[in-house]
Design brief:
This protein is mainly alpha-helical. Helix content is 77%, strand content 0%. The protein has three helices and no strands.
């Protein structure tokens, strides 16, 4: 009978960990969507300005300069999408190991010394 509270505590801890991970994934996805919306809005404005200025000379699809930020920033948007969709957080596992290490150290300090 004494093992049951420990099991409940372990189950709660596992559930809390799962909830924390899920919340982090949702936040990462929300951040990506915000980044994507900002990219689309800003690129729309830049493309419209570049197309409307009617510059003479060599252009690509009627654009003089807007393709530079379109491609440059686009690379980062794609990278952000890949990192979110495939959970490729830079240093994610390292952070988790360090967190566990420091938690273990704190628990040892809190235990009474014999």
């Amino acid at each position: 009978m004494m093992d049951e509270p420990a099991k409940d505590s372990a189950a709660e801890s596992t559930e809390d960990d799962a909830l924390t991970r899920a919340m982090k994934r949702v936040k990462a996805l929300r951040d990506f969507y915000g980044h994507l919306v900002l990219y689309v809005v800003v690129m729309g404005i830049l493309l419209a300005v570049d197309y409307a200025d009617g510059s003479e000379g060599e252009t690509w699809l009627g654009l003089d300069w807007a393709y530079f930020p379109l491609i440059g920033w686009g690379v980062f948007v794609v990278g952000h999408a890949v990192s979110v969709m495939f959970d490729l957080r830079v240093g994610g596992r390292w952070e988790q190991r360090k967190l566990q290490k420091y938690l273990d150290q704190e628990r040892r300090r809190e235990q009474p010394q014999h």
